[in-house]
């Protein structure tokens, strides 16, 4: 049986997934420096744990573990295809990689370093490269002495204000003083950047290194896939029936998967465009928030962004409660390119295979834990054949 022919809209939708030329075009020397720093274990206090220890280039920049560390309880995301991303991290508390990298760098259970120690490593081993790109490095011994573990506190009064707003049945169950105090420290990078704000030279240094890391990371793209090759053939002869463009790794079954993806299964609602994500936030009902595991998802990201991320932090959160509620347990929509290689899945690594992911979506009971509808809420009613076709499609990306 021939595939249903594509009309103009169908063709436009299909081609909207085609990879785009790079958005940013960082200088090659910046990318090269970032690449070397990324792979250098000397940046960590144990002299071994580089960024690549978790974001392993041979594993599509993931680690294959359920969670990166026992304490962080977060799955390591791939770094492929972040060019053009509007937010990073699962709760989107950072907008830019150059600000985000300081988190794993200083986190005690990750690289356990300090900005001063970063300065010493970079000047000792990359002094010349740094000088050529950014000019004279600062005197590392003049970095402020900040206690080993900076515990970023919420601004004075902020916690009280959040709690006051939280006197709402839905929120009150999970937002408590202890919980808030606990999560204030989950993003140690913010604490450092706040502490360094009054020291222009060290701050500029940390940002320069961040710029190099970011340049390298946004240059990373998934290898051209079977789906890309198929799109390339469609582009050449858009008027021909799609089956003419089928070929190695993208055939009838993958095509049926694609049709489900943009049709019956509604995946395209959230996973669209060349990166298969618009970086928006949804609760898929897997973010169980309890007192002991206060993962407020995007709600926490918003609070952190506002209270600690900006220099204009005030003691009263300006985010309407409705917004916080709606974003409770929501996480960033993940891109899907190269997805077959980055198991396990979801922010907490709780789903081991793409089959498990499909089973979860098929149930369609998103956002059950917070009672806030966000995303789909009805069963997809996929047949086993349809489920398999969708997985084959995902594998072709
Ligand atoms: C111990 C493992 C580990 C190490 C080491 C590590 N990361 Fe990560 N990385 C993670 C985890 C886990 C996340 C998810 C964090 C979150 O959502 O809060 C992450 C998220 C990221 C993200 C955001 C990706 C996205 O799509 O949201 C970037 C960028 C990143 N890391 C870069 C780095 C850089 C640069 C370094 C080295 C300075 C580094 N990481 C070191 C585990 C690690
Ligand atoms: C309502 C929005 C929404 C819809 C609809 C949706 N997704 Fe997702 N998807 C997300 C979000 C949000 C995440 C990240 C969830 C997490 O990390 O816990 C995600 C994650 C995934 C992941 C795991 C990515 C990873 O690296 O861990 C896969 C695979 C996936 N989606 C495939 C699909 C497929 C296939 C469909 C259609 C059946 C679909 N999605 C429909 C929002 C959506």
Outline:
41% of the residues lie in helices and 1% in strands.
List strands and helices in order, with pairings:
Elements: H1 8-15, H2 28-38, H3 51-54, H4 97-100, H5 102-106, H6 115-134, H7 158-165, H8 169-172, H9 177-183, H10 188-196, H11 200-218, H12 226-236, H13 252-262, E1 281-282, H14 298-309, H15 321-326, E2 331-332, H16 354-363, H17 384-395
Antiparallel strand pairs: 1-2
The protein binds heme C (2 copies).
Keyword list:
single chain; Cytochrome Bc1 Complex, Chain D, domain 2; 17 helices; 2 strands; 41% helix; binds heme C
Describe the structure.
41% of the residues lie in helices and 1% in strands. The chain has 397 residues and is mainly α. It has two domains: 8-19 and 223-282 and 331-395, Cytochrome Bc1 Complex, Chain D, domain 2 (Orthogonal Bundle), CATH 1.10.760.10; 20-150 and 187-220, Cytochrome Bc1 Complex, Chain D, domain 2, CATH 1.10.760. Strands 1-2 form a two-stranded antiparallel ribbon. The protein is globular and about 75 Å long.
Helix content: 40-55%
The H-level CATH homologous superfamily of the largest domain, spelled out, is: Cytochrome c-like domain
Residue-averaged pLDDT: 85
Instruction: Report the major sheet.
Output: 2 strands, antiparallel
CATH topology of the largest domain: Cytochrome Bc1 Complex, Chain D, domain 2
Order of helices and strands: HHHHHHHHHHHHHEHHEHH
Helix count, per DSSP? 17
How many strand units? 2
What binds here, in terms of ligands, is: heme C
Please report the distance between the alpha carbons of the first and last residues.
24 Å
CATH architecture of the largest domain: Orthogonal Bundle
């Amino acid at each position: 049986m021939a595939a249903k022919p594509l009309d103009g809209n169908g063709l436009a939708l299909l081609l909207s997934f085609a990879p785009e030329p790079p958005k940013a075009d960082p200088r090659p020397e910046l990318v090269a420096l970032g690449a070397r720093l990324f792979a250098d274990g000397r940046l960590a206090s144990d002299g071994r744990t580089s960024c690549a220890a978790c974001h392993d280039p041979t594993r599509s920049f993931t680690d294959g573990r359920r969670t990166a560390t026992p304490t962080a309880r977060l799955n390591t995301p791939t770094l492929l295809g972040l060019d053009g991303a509007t937010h990073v991290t699962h709760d989107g508390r950072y907008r830019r990689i150059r600000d985000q990298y300081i988190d794993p760098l200083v986190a005690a259970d990750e690289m356990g370093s300090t900005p001063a120690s970063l300065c010493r490593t970079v000047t000792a081993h990359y002094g010349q490269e740094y000088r050529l790109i950014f000019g004279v490095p600062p005197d590392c011994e003049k970095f402020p002495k900040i206690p080993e573990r900076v515990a970023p506190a919420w601004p004075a009064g902020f916690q009280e204000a959040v709690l006051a707003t939280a006197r709402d049945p839905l929120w009150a169950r999970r937002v408590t003083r202890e919980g808030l105090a606990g999560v204030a420290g989950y993003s140690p990078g913010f604490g450092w950047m706040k502490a360094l704000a009054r020291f222009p030279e060290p701050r500029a240094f940390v940002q320069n290194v961040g710029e190099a890391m970011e340049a390298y990371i946004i240059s990373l793209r998934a290898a051209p896939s079977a789906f890309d090759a198929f799109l390339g053939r469609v582009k050449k002869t858009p008027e021909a029936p799609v089956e003419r463009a089928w070929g190695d790794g993208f055939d009838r079954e993958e095509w049926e998967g694609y049709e489900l993806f943009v049709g019956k299964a509604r995946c395209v609602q959230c996973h669209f465009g060349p990166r298969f994500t618009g970086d928006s936030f949804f609760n898929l009902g897997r973010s169980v928030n309890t007192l002991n595991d206060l993962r407020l998802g995007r709600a926490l990201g918003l609070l952190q962004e506002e209270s600690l991320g900006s220099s204009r932090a005030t003691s009263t959160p300006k985010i309407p409660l409705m917004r916080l509620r709606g974003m409770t347990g929501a996480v960033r929509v993940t891109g899907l390119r190269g997805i077959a290689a980055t198991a396990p899945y979801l922010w907490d690594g709780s789903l081991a295979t793409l089959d498990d992911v499909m089973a979860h979506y098929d149930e369609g009971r998103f956002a059950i834990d917070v009672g806030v509808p966000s995303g789909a809420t009805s069963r997809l009613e996929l047949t086993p054949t349809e489920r398999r076709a969708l997985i084959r499609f995902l594998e072709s990306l």
